[in-house]
Automatic annotation (TrEMBL):
Record gene name: nadA
Described purpose of this protein according to its UniProt entry: Catalyzes the condensation of iminoaspartate with dihydroxyacetone phosphate to form quinolinate.
Family of the protein in this entry: Belongs to the quinolinate synthase family. Type 3 subfamily.
Species this chain originates from: Candidatus Microbacterium stercoravium
Binding positions (iminosuccinate): H95, S112, Y200, M201, N202, S221, H316, P317, E318, T333
Catalytic activity: iminosuccinate + dihydroxyacetone phosphate = quinolinate + phosphate + 2 H2O + H(+)
EC number: 2.5.1.72
HAMAP family recorded: NadA_type3
Keywords: 4Fe-4S, Cytoplasm, Iron, Iron-sulfur, Metal-binding, Pyridine nucleotide biosynthesis, Transferase
Protein name: Quinolinate synthase
Coiled coil: none
Cofactors demanded by this protein: [4Fe-4S] cluster
Cofactor note: Binds 1 [4Fe-4S] cluster per subunit.
């Protein structure tokens, strides 16, 4: 399974763009090597850097000095050599939002769920190197074989949105809802329980396990509507976490009035709502968001329309509701990718999602004009922690017979988390 370099006519590298003009990015520190930030806990420079970082989040240890000093060409040679030695024993997965210097070595490139499925299709691979963020590696571990090892090249690659819903906060919320509605597992005369918990894929395995234990389900940005229909067939209302925007945008498109979507702020009693508001609710939205997609605004869309008459605006459903409403289309990363691939005439696209994917799509489709709605270069800071030096490190350690940065989900969490994922796979539109 050889790694292949993607050759593009246009330079898609966000890292090179930042190095050439750090002032055009959201943080001048993005031009620094990522190991500069490994000794300080945090998400690193970029769009998520100001979000609260959980105390319990793992941090990356020191990268060996020879890797920190290696040139791009040396790292390329070392990664290729390790891949060559390991052959089919390893599968390398690259998320759409990874930097191009990582994607170039991936056997599969996709969204988090596509990649977890790709991993499950290689049961004989000993190791799955997941170039993404922590919750993605956990999902891959849940869906892979018991003897397979899932490796995250940089332990600091968390997800600030996933971290906005901790298991303690969600369990506390569940107890408060039980105080309001009574036993949450008892169906009423119509066979509906008071609340069905629904978690976005972008959540920890502990949260997926909570959902599985409490009759709930996981969703992705591609199937959120189908999953909400599944939940409404079983419950009076839904508790949706961690991303308020995906929950609101999806429920609104299904006809749920905004007044019936109160927000749950975990730092306030009853999440900041009254008992009457909760009683009237259809979807209770957790107070979480993606710091990358929150940057998109309607003003950016107005500007794109003024400067590019006829522009097609497509945004991700993690964007705030006014942005989704003002766009021509919204959809998952895969929907965005396919919309561009399916366009038969040269088209101008303004895209509202992470910059690495937008620049790669622009380079892959030179017949179209494709640009990011946000003029500031601001990658997902956690994805950006994975630099080729860390990929070289984990692969070379595998060659040496050592597994570093393994991500494992333990039995008591894994079993209900798999149940929640399995319900999602079986939910039909
Ligand atoms: S883009 Fe947003 S949701 Fe995705 S990993 Fe980064 S912070 Fe998390």
């Amino acid at each position: 399974m050889p790694a292949t370099r993607i050759t593009l006519e246009v330079d898609a590298s966000v890292a090179r763009a930042i190095a050439a003009a750090p002032a055009d990015s959201c943080s001048a520190d993005l031009a620094e090597a990522p190991w500069t930030f490994d000794s300080t806990p945090g998400y690193g420079p970029g769009s998520s850097s100001a979000d609260p970082f959980p105390d319990v989040a793992p941090t990356q240890g020191e990268l060996p000095a020879d890797l920190r000093a290696a040139s791009d060409d040396e790292l390329d040679a070392r990664i290729r050599a390790a891949r060559q030695t390991l052959g089919d024993r390893v599968v390398v997965l690259g998320h759409f939002y990874q930097r191009d210097e990582i994607v170039t070595y991936a056997d599969y490139v996709g969204d988090s769920f596509q990649l977890a499925r790709a991993a499950s299709e290689h049961p004989s691979a000993e190791a799955i190197v997941f170039c993404g963020v922590h919750f993605m590696a956990e999902t891959a571990d849940l869906l892979s074989g018991p003897d397979q090892r899932v490796i995250l090249p940089h332990l600091g690659a968390g997800c600030s949105m996933a971290d906005m819903a901790s298991i303690d906060e969600v369990e506390e919320c569940w107890e408060q809802l039980e105080d309001v509605f009574g036993p949450l597992d008892e169906p009423d005369a119509e066979g509906l329980v008071p609340v069905i918990p629904v978690t976005y894929m972008n959540s920890s395995a502990a949260i997926k396990g909570f959902v599985g234990r409490n009759g709930g389900i996981v969703c992705t940005s591609s199937n959120a509507r189908t999953v909400l229909e599944w939940a409404f067939a079983r419950g009076r209302r839904v508790l949706f976490f961690p991303d308020q925007h995906l929950g609101r945008n999806t429920a609104k498109a299904m006809g749920v009035p905004l007044e019936q979507m109160p927000m749950w702020n975990p730092r306030q009693p009853l999440g900041g709502s009254s008992e009457a508001e909760l009683d009237d609710s259809r979807v209770i939205l957790w107070h979480g968001f993606c710091s990358v997609h929150r940057r998109f605004t309607t003003a950016q869309i107005d500007k794109a329309r003024a400067e590019h008459p006829g522009v097609r605006v497509i945004v991700h459903p993690e964007c705030p509701m006014p942005v989704v409403d003002a766009a021509d289309e919204s959809g998952s990363t895969d929907v965005i990718r396919r919309a561009i691939e399916d366009a038969t005439e040269p088209t101008t696209f303004a895209i509202g999602t992470e910059i690495n994917l937008v620049r790669r799509l622009a380079a892959q489709h030179p017949q179209h004009t494709i640009f990011c709605l946000d003029p500031v270069v601001c990658p997902c800071s956690t994805m950006y922690r994975i630099h080729p030096a860390y990929l070289a490190w984990v692969l070379e350690r595998l060659v040496a017979g050592e597994t570093v940065n393994q991500i494992r989900v333990t039995g008591s969490v894994a079993e209900p988390a798999r149940l929640a994922l399995d319900r999602m796979l079986r939910a039909k539109p």
